[in-house]
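# step 3/5: fold
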Amino acid sequence: MAQDKMGFWSVVAVGIGGMVGGGIFAVLGLSVQLAQGGAPVAFAIAGLIALITTYAYAQLSTTFVSRGGTVTFLNKAFGTGVFTGSLNLLLWLSYIVMLSLYASAFGSYGAVFFPESMQFWAKHLLISGAIVGITGLNLLSAEIIGRAESWIVAFKLLILGLFIALGIRGVDPAQLQPDTWASPLAMVSGGMIIFLAFEGFELMANTAEDVHQPDRTLPRAFYAAVLFVLVLYVLIAGTTVGTLTTDKIVEAKEYALAAAAEPFMGQLGFKLVAIAALLSTASALNATLYGTARLSFIIAQSGELPDVLEKKIWNKPIEGLLITSGLTLLVANLFNVSSISTMGSSGFLLIFAAVNYANFRLYRQTHSNRWISLLGTIACIAAVTVLLQQTARTQPQNLWVVVVMVGLAVAIEVGYRRLTKRHIHLRSPQD
């Protein structure tokens, strides 16, 4: 095997690193608030939808070997019309929301080290400092954190494994019984609002050009990574709900995992999980900001964003990086975790519905079972429908931010085409 090509375990590490980023630290408390004792089931529902969607990604990645990933798949299936352009912009906006979630989690976990009277301001200072600092690192050298990424992933998996190993012995089965679960609609909604904790598997598609024997390696890597994370999340949720009352988890919602560790790991466990969260969210922020700036570059190359974003300085898409960081600063500081999670999960569910349908349309080229991808399309649409219905009933203000996000993607695409008449073209795998 060529030394410069990625093998099975390297690709799996990309997927696990992308999924076990800041998501689980940020959304666990929110999931428990919605699903209550059924939080493990909520995570399992979200994981199963992600697992079905990995089939489409595995088939498309091995057929259209490209660093463009999702953008390439949508362009191949639907052409370069307003629909595809809007979806690509929605993907970019959804990643900005993900960045905001990571920054918010960084601020929440970092604030616990400050006196309670200072925590509100400390949180927002840490959010802003993390975004500005990581942006600076990307301007200078993203490799500073990148070199330590494998150690950070290993450390957070070690801490999460220790959390499960020590905590599972003290789980009270009564706190996981069906009579502690929320209603079925709230359970599904709880699974969908934390769906963005799984979305990182999408990053594996962007490695296709760098993978040794992608037709064999990528499918196995996709399934292995998603199954591992699905089991990990269910065990974490079960341990949390089984050892700490729902009221206490909700009270510590934004740093729930650290609070859940304290009963059986003590104050040291609380601090260890908080430190793991800080490292994890910082590394996820770095990797996602690096990738999102390049996503804006790829979309600009296809003509769906202004060509200024296609320019590189110091071999970096500086304009895309700065615009992405600026929008992240606004979203992370102006919206709460619930709003951010609703926006992010809705955006990715819509994108994944489109990717599933893309594989359904291209099944002859991808040699796929089209009915699996049709099932994935229906599951994603049904999931986002349930999420939005539950949001409209319980937090209608969050529904409007989703409508604005989707509407913004369409408005930018339509307005940009009409104003500039810029030519839209498909990217080749070599671009």
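# step 4/5: annotate
Residues 8-420 form a domain with the Amino acid/polyamine transporter I fold (CATH 1.20.1740.10).
# step 5/5: archive (pending)
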